[in-house]
Design a protein that fits this description.
By secondary structure, this protein is mostly helical. Helix content is about 50%, strand content about 0%. It is built from seven helices and no strands. Helix 3 packs across helix 4, helix 3 crosses helix 6 and helix 4 crosses helix 7. The chain is globular, with a radius of gyration of 17 Å. The relative contact order is 0.16. The protein binds zinc ion. The site of zinc ion has 9 residues, from helix 2.
Length: about 190
């Protein structure tokens, strides 16, 4: 659980332990520390025995990670933004088997790209919805709708890196589903 503190140190970021979260702007008392403690809030409304709900866990993990990129490894941000591109733009279904496939693809991809960095949007400028808003939801449906909007807002805030991760996502699809995705670029799915 100390990972995020180590990562922040590595990035030269001082973590603030009072007031709002310095990264997403959520109104807390203990800053990022409270944000990390609470980011799963609201997900208890979803039944994860139903595989259809797994999507909302992926989306919320990606949204939270990308609102706090300074406390994740650089390639971890590539992973989360590429996954959002695959799900939101390329309309790919996602499940627990695909995440390690994407990680493996990125592990190979990064070997030749020591200087590739995503352009990180400014703190507090990564979508208005935060994990704290999930506290207010009272039904599964509200939870799903909020997570969709949250992921959309965060994804949009990273627009300057969309074309890069879109290429990575295409490479991933070609690599893993060669043949199944033909015609992908010419349809409007
Ligand atoms: Zn936060």
């Amino acid at each position: 659980m100390q990972d995020f503190i180590d990562q922040a140190n590595k990035n030269g970021i001082t973590l603030l332990d009072n007031g709002m979260c310095q990264f997403c702007g959520a109104d807390y008392q203990r800053g990022i520390f409270e944000c990390m403690d609470n980011y799963n809030n609201g997900l208890e409304h979803l039944d994860f025995n139903d595989a259809e709900n797994h999507l909302f866990r992926f989306l919320s993990v990606d949204a939270h990670a990308l609102q706090h990129p300074e406390i994740h490894g650089r390639w971890s941000n590539h992973f989360h933004l590429t996954r959002l591109n695959l799900i939101l733009d390329k309309k790919q279904t996602w499940d627990y088997k695909k995440s390690p496939m994407l990680s493996a693809y990125l592990n190979a991809y990064k070997l030749n790209r020591p200087n590739e960095f995503l352009t990180i949007p400014k703190p507090l400028d990564r979508g208005k919805i935060t994990a704290k808003d999930l506290i207010k939801v009272t039904t599964a449906n509200e939870c799903v709708e909020l997570i969709k909007k949250w992921a959309d807002e965060v994804y949009y805030s990273w627009s300057s890196s969309h074309s890069l991760v879109s290429q990575i996502a295409d490479g991933f699809l070609d690599n893993n589903y060669n043949g199944k995705t033909q015609g992908r670029k010419t349809t409007n799915r």
